[in-house]
Amino acid sequence: MAHIDDMEAALSLERFGRYVTWAGGDRERALELYTLNTQVSEALYIALQTLEISLRNRIHSAMALTNGERWFEQTDLMQVPHQAAQVADAIAELEANGKEPTPGRIVAALSFSFWTAMFSPAYEQLWRTTLHAIATRDGKGLARKDFSRPLTQIRLLRNRIAHHEPILHWDLRRHHQALRDLTKWLSPPAHAWSAPLDRFEAIYPAEGIILARAIVEE
């Protein structure tokens, strides 16, 4: 029990309390769930990383082809208010670190929320004229909405993992499949490269995860 007491103190009562609730008050089981949460979060990294890199590079390639490499600085193209501020912040950070703000560096510095914003309704027209070129499914084109809904959930999941938050109550198999599907649509080579590296199925329990309270699927 000393080990659990020490971990509870290290994690904080508030953070560990969620797992104790999920374990029905069994603190040993709570620590097992916390460990599993950490392992599953780590196992999702490959799929998250591959999707994010594929997404931003495909968008940048399509937009640069029709609007030039610095398309993200054209105010008439940016339809979501926070995107211009994100571009400015990325440039400022690069310059503060003594780096030339080249298009490639700016693209790499922009957050995931910048790229997911490109699938908001405000970009419907741009999707029809330009962004539709970023992905295909079985040789056929895709609609903006094929990306927008799963990407919203993936962004939230990514942020929870980045902040070390609980994710066991999410429908992780569904989200993992969405990560794989979207990556395949965007870049079959990236999808194929990442497949043998993806450990999610090996880590996530085959029987699922049973929590003492009702599971809230996200």
Automatic annotation (TrEMBL):
Pfam families: Abi_2 (PF07751). This is Abi-like protein. The lineage of its organism: Bacteria, Pseudomonadati, Pseudomonadota, Alphaproteobacteria, Hyphomicrobiales.
